[in-house]
Design brief:
Two copies of one chain form a homodimer.
Chain A lengths: L1 H7 L4 H14 L8 E2 L1 H7 L4 H13 L3 E4 L3 E4 L4 H26 L4 H15 L3 H18 L3 H8 L2 H10 L6 H5 L1 H10 L3 H16 L13
Antiparallel strand pairs in A: 1-3, 2-3
Helix pairs in contact in A: 2-4, 3-4, 5-7, 5-9, 5-12, 6-7, 11-12
The first copy, chain A, binds a DNA duplex (30 and 30 nucleotides) through helix 3 and helix 4.
Amino acid sequence: MADKDHALQRDSMAERVKQDLLRRIMSGELRPGTRLVELQIARELNTSQGPVREALCELEGLELVVTEPYKGSRVREVTQQDIREAYLIRATLEKLAGELATPRFQGSVADLKKAATAILSAARKKDIATYTRHDITFHRLIVEGASNRILLRTWNSLAFEVRLQLWLSRGKIDLVAVQEAHWKIIDALDKGNGKLAGKLLHEHIYEFSRSGVSQSDAPQQK
Amino acid sequence: MADKDHALQRDSMAERVKQDLLRRIMSGELRPGTRLVELQIARELNTSQGPVREALCELEGLELVVTEPYKGSRVREVTQQDIREAYLIRATLEKLAGELATPRFQGSVADLKKAATAILSAARKKDIATYTRHDITFHRLIVEGASNRILLRTWNSLAFEVRLQLWLSRGKIDLVAVQEAHWKIIDALDKGNGKLAGKLLHEHIYEFSRSGVSQSDAPQQK
DNA sequence: ATTCTATAGATTATTTATAATCCGTTCAGG
DNA sequence: CCTGAACGGATTATAAATAATCTATAGAAT
């Protein structure tokens, strides 16, 4: 049984464990607070404790899990406050990204329009998973357009809070209405108005962070 | 010989290895590009491969080392471009921090003044190590004053580039002149002028990133 | 009844051993 | 002289076994 896996192996064992846990955490299958027992995960994935520890260590670096010595790891609890704080940082970073990315997008916003169209389509179908995926793609395109590796790295470190907020706000807000801001942003970038694009991005993101989540939805502390 | 170590043990082995490597990298003893051989480090610190791997994994999460599968880890090479990019992000984040921190500092800037005095003293003695330490303390106080954990976490992730720039600019710039900006920032915070404090912080940091480093000082790629 | 202690089970931390991979060197063939 | 396959040392990756620590429970002492 392990033979087939071995034949298909591209990444290291630790990498595969990491990807599996990453997927399960981001999809919400592993809720915040869930314990991650090393030997149990190792058995599930037909490997040993070492690679699992390494995967957990990397996920801890991404701030997705927290580990206490001799007590183990669990999926990080994210408070409503964490999400508010993360969105303020994200708004600030994307404002900068919008300004920096203007030279790149002026007159060539085809990719952005494609992403925005996909977002709109998913919003109309109320397909949260697809909406989230394309929404993140849209914003990532802008951050990548800034051509600043450190900016991208920093932005990526906020991904967990962003996905969680998108998940928590499911059904609470009008996705179609929220996504309309994207078209104004695209227009500003297309015309080379970086200041405006940055301002719109900041407003768009900050507004969203304030929307749709009541306290009862907040992940409860253990 | 291991007995004495064992008696004094507070942290786990992995944590001690991490702290040792962290210190040696930040102090410049381990230059960018230096290979970090797991078993060699393990022997030096009287432990085995496992804890060393864990320490390296955590340092990779802090972006201090890079690891290639089956090829090992080395202290990260930081290009001049990386430093420029990091300083732009840092300037943006500290501008935000300055604005957010105003309520906290208005009328109570004693800690900031103490740090700024220590910086000035070190600048006059041309004591780079002490200057760096207090300079980072000064800026950290402001970021902490913003009361935003995510902001602090994000700011911390830029620490390596910041220290490296401070190190690279040694002897190339007038430390006394640069640090004078601190007093204007303190004054703005003391008076509750957050917008001005933010603007001054942005200028101060961005200026510094442009100063004093010629291309020949840039860490060379292997 | 309450608090303290001891014990057992579960889990993490570390060590030791083994497998897989990389990389420079050597040497055969052209 | 050049090319490429094969060997060997060095290092990382994984596995397996053991040690250290935590947590809950049960029982004894007060």
